[in-house]
Amino acid sequence: MTTVILLTVTGLVSGLAIGIVVKFFGTTPNPLEEKLLELVPGANCGGCGFAGCEGYAKAMADGSAKPGACPLMNDAVVQEICALLGVESEPRKPMVAVVCCSGDDDHAQRMAFYNGVNDCQNAMLVAGGGKGCVYGCLGLGSCARACPYGAIEIRPNHIAVVHPELCVGCGKCVLACPRRLIKLTPKSAPVHVFCSSPERGALKRKFCSAACIGCRKCVKEAGENQVSMNGSLAVINYDNPPDAAVAAACPTGALRTTAIMESTKG
Amino acid sequence: MIKQLHFYGGIHPAEDKVAQSVPIVEPPILETYIVPLQQHIGAPAKAVVAKGDQVKRGQLLGEAQGFVSAPVHAPTSGVIREVTTCLGPSGAQVPALLLASDGEDTPAEPMPAIDWRQAPPGDLRQRIAAAGIVGKGGAAFPTVVKLSPPPNKKIDTLILNGVECEPCLTADHRLMLERAEDIVTGAQITAHILGAKTILLGIENNKPDAIEVMRQAVGDSGIKVCSLKVRYPQGAEKQLIYAVTGRKVPSGGLPADIGCLVQNVGTAAAIADAVCRGKPLYERVTTVTGTPLVSPGNWRFRVGTTYADAIKLAGGVKEDPIKIISGGPMMGMAVYSLDIPVIKSTSGILLLSQDELTQFDVRPCIRCGRCNDSCPTGMMPGILSVQIENQRYELAEKWHVMDCIECGCCAYTCPASRPLVQHMRRAKAEVQAARRAAKAKAEK
Ligand code: SF4
Ligand code: SF4
Ligand code: SF4
Ligand code: SF4
After folding, report:
1. Are B131 and B272 in the same domain?
2. Which has the closest alpha carbon to B7: B245, B225, B265?
3. Which has the least CB within 10 A, A92, B18, B50, B425?
4. B140 and B249 share a domain?
5. How far apart are CA B401 and CA B381, in angstroms?
6. In what order do the strands lie in the sheet with B157-161?
7. B360 to chain A: which residues are within 8 Å by CB?
8. Is residue B162 part of a domain?
9. Could you tell me the distance, in angstroms and rounded to a whole number, from the CA of residue A145 to the centre of ligand 2?
10. Last residue of some domain: B223, B249, B277?
11. How far is CA B359 from its chain centroid?
12. Domain CATH number, residue B207
């Protein structure tokens, strides 16, 4: 019985103390900030460049960040925030991540058996993980673990694939990949070059049957201002992307519309 | 009984030095050499020859770019067939020159010999830089940088490293037996440059013949030959300093902080070549060994000899090797291509057969503490690795992960087969990246 009374009294006293502290010493909540906090998605992915959604809401409230930096927010919410802040909304370009490599186990050669720590960045520290192509995807999933939205799948044949319907374009994976294979591209662009090796075509061919060999067929098909060549690697001009039909010109399949390739092995 | 010199921690793996009684062999001139322009730590050299150029042995092929860099010289005479890239032992593509030899091996005009006793240290440093000399122990750090300590750090002790604690390797051992005089001269030149009073030569007592030969070669030059108890990694800089002088390099510090400098015996011999004979560094002694080989031994390879050629010269293989390591079994790196060339720091090529290779299943740390006892730097690799797995790199930095010398003692003793060294490397890379980022931010 005494215990119950004691605890009740302690509870009441502490509650009162907290109440007093908040009343007299607490910060007055900023109504604008509160409102913004309700509108941000609360995923805390960091895609806006701030430490979590709260940081971004605060930055918007004091005018140091613009609405629209959050890749997850839809246009309606951005409009609402713009109205709250009294600023013009700027046009947004939804982005999506693409792993620019076709070197899965069916197409690219594996030169060594790697049995170290299951992480791409660790593999890079020991002779580059043993893939023939020193630019290719290691398939150990550093990017997949970094993605807050579970949008990256490591396929059974050891390649990372972004599922565009899940990806919000936050860019976390771009930084996680030690091979620098992941690019943020406009969602509207229909075709991508799934190869990142700047090597000579012959050397690439030696290690990977799906590499971009620099044959320029896509450039001829689409024109210089849509696809250009950087050494032996075709580069899409994402400000003026070619349409999906150009993929048919590519003899190796490096230029294509979907990330997942047909398996060539039974 | 005399107290045996050694350091804290360490292990004693099987030595397997089967090639130690095989004298160094001079291989015949090969048809082609692929000479990387980066055979050292620092900026790659810049090619000064072009495709189709005729070159002579010892001619400059690439000049150093900046202070921490080293020039590269032609291993033989012939024609530059291509300016290209090749796979380096680290697994990255590096710029390289493909040299087709003409079989004549015509030497270029050597640099004039220097009488080092009269020469000012500056001239000698310049010669060492021009000859492209780098540390031959493994790290391939440009020697001239090491020999130019900041003026406030006085080096009083030069320590020659003839330990060769790495199992299987015997190149330094053979070098001490066959080129003792040059090693002594190289050491004296180095001490002259640094103004060091004491010269110590550390050799493990599993090489009694080398200790004997070196004791005779040093004569009354004042060099002291120290016999050390066999313990891996005695050949690591800080461990060797402690074993022979009792001085400890502070955490995060350099040997120069306590007035020491460590140099490999091979580097000393190369310095003697460069100064007394004007010969640049374009060849080195490499041990090619392992059970799959027909005749393991020690070869004086020209740089640019591919591993495939090296193995062929060693009589080829009698069974298929399952793993090929550049360097020794403890610190070496597994390679997956035989097109990799021998470079200035290739101390060994080791082939393992199927039954010598164990594939480990990694299990959780059982907190047995064996790794703590074996770590020569006094760290706690097991607990550290758990933190590193959870990406707590800042904590790892606080726990001195940067002191790790990647000797592999911890992983060798771990009953749970944890890949401890790889974890350490990851943490070191992350800490370095964080430091670089902090520095860039501070500069901005
Ligand atoms: S795939 Fe990359 S860009 Fe897309 S949501 Fe995941 S981490 Fe962000
Ligand atoms: S895309 Fe990069 S991070 Fe992802 S699995 Fe491939 S190599 Fe690893
Ligand atoms: S933690 Fe580093 S220095 Fe210590 S035993 Fe392991 S590899 Fe060697
Ligand atoms: S030796 Fe292995 S199991 Fe034992 S404490 Fe160290 S890491 Fe853990």
Report:
1. yes
2. B245
3. B50
4. yes
5. 9
6. B224-228, B198-204, B157-161, B260-264
7. 115
8. yes
9. 10
10. B277
11. 27
12. 3.40.50.11540
The alpha-carbon radius of gyration of chain B (Å, integer) is 22
In-domain check, residue B145:
yes
Question: Same structural domain for residues B384 and B259?
Answer: no
CA of A185 to the centre of ligand 1 (A): 11
Nearest residue of A to residue B359, measured between CA atoms: A115
pLDDT tens for each residue of chain A, 266 residues long:
788 888 888 888 888 888 887 777 766 668 888 888 888 888 888 888 888 888 888 888 888 888 888 888 888 888 888 888 888 888 888 899 999 999 999 999 888 888 889 999 999 888 777 888 889 999 999 999 999 999 999 999 999 999 999 999 999 999 999 999 999 999 999 999 999 998 888 888 889 999 999 999 999 999 889 999 998 999 999 999 998 999 999 999 999 998 887 655 43
Q: Kindly give the distance from the C-alpha atom of residue B298 to the centroid of ligand 2, in angstroms, as a whole number.
A: 41
* A143 three-class SS: helix
In this structure, are B127 and B236 located in the same domain?
A: yes
Are residues B422 and A117, on separate chains, in Cβ contact within 8 Å?
yes
As for the ipTM of the complex, it is 0.80
Does residue B1 lie within any of the structural domains? no
Q: Are residues B262 and B392 in the same domain?
A: no
Residues with CB under 6 A from ligand 3: B 374-377, 379, 381, 404-410, 420-421, 424
Identify whether B295 is part of a domain.
no
Please report the number of interchain residue pairs, chain A to chain B, with beta-carbon separation below 8 angstroms. Answer: 46
User: Which residues of chain B neighbour A126 with C-beta distances below 8 Å?
Assistant: 91, 333-334, 422, 425
- Tell me: do B129 and B268 sit in the same domain: yes
Measure the CA–CA gap between A131 and A159, rounded to whole angstroms. 12
Does A250 sit in the ligand 2 pocket, CB within 6 Å? no
Q: In this structure, which residue's CA is closest to atom 1 in ligand 4?
A: B414
Number of domains in chain B: 2
Nearest CA among B249, B234, B399 for reference residue B424: B399
Whether B258 and B126 share a structural domain: yes
The number of the ligand 1 atom at minimal distance from the alpha carbon of A95 is 3
Task: Provide the shortest C-alpha distance from residue A121 to chain B (in Å).
Answer: 8
All domains in chain A, ordered by first residue: 29-92 (1.10.15.40), 96-256 (3.30.70.20)
Q: Which structure tokens are listed for B192?
A: 């002259």
| First and final C-alpha spacing in chain B | 61
Domain span at B267: 121-277
Give the residue, out of A157, A182, A197, with the most ligand 2 atoms within 8 A of its beta carbon, to mutate for a pocket test.
A182
> Using a CB-CB distance cutoff of 8 angstroms, which residues of chain A are in contact with residue B423?
117, 122
| 3-state secondary structure string across B93-158 | EEEEEEEEECCCCCECCCCCCCCCCCCCHHHHHHHHHHCCCECCCCCCCEHHHHCCCCCCCCCCEE
In a shared domain, residues B265 and B125:
yes
